[in-house]
Inverse folding.
């Protein structure tokens, strides 16, 4: 199995709320996503599952996406919260580019982080895609609201990221100390 081969985490985002899902994804159902998460968990692999905000969703959809994860039998060990980076030439990028829906309000994003932290207290809440366009102040608020992890490096999949030096400078400014790579993550997700 994959766990025996050394796989310890599987990323499978639910992307948005059950109610908004069919507006965003047509190749599988929301239940398919949940079924996959259950299969991964049953295989003894840690779950990394979050979503994307800024898809043109409502606040209720953001609550629904967090609620769907928080009401799983076990919370994901890792919950990435991504801000959509609308890339021209993609369906969402072309649909949302140059509209007010293209960027979620900073405070709404921070609220989403806070709700994830409150409802999934033992999960790593990861401040993920979209950080390149976030101010340091917004990122600081996210950490204060409960984000306790980032994805770092110059690129995340297809879009730019802040990079290691910018992250190190921000952490120094905020007095944050990153975990050493040898430190165990001690992921006991809430039952």
């Amino acid at each position: 199995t994959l766990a025996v081969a050394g796989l310890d985490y599987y990323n499978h985002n639910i992307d948005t709320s059950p109610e908004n899902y069919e507006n965003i994804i047509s190749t599988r159902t929301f239940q398919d996503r949940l079924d996959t998460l259950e299969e991964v968990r049953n295989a003894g692999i840690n779950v990394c599952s979050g979503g994307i905000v800024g898809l043109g969703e409502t606040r209720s959809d953001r609550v629904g996406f967090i609620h769907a994860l928080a009401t799983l039998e076990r919370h994901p060990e890792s919950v990435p919260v991504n801000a959509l980076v609308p890339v021209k030439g993609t369906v969402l990028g072309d649909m949302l580019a140059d509209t007010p829906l293209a960027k979620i309000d900073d405070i709404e994003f921070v609220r989403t982080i806070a709700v994830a932290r409150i409802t999934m207290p033992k999960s790593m809440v990861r401040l993920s895609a979209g950080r390149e366009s976030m101010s340091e102040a917004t990122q600081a608020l996210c950490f204060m609201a409960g984000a306790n992890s980032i994805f770092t490096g110059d690129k995340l999949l297809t879009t730019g990221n802040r990079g290691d030096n910018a992250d190190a400078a921000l952490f120094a400014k905020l007095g944050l100390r990153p975990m050493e790579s040898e430190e165990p993550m001690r992921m006991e997700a809430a039952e």
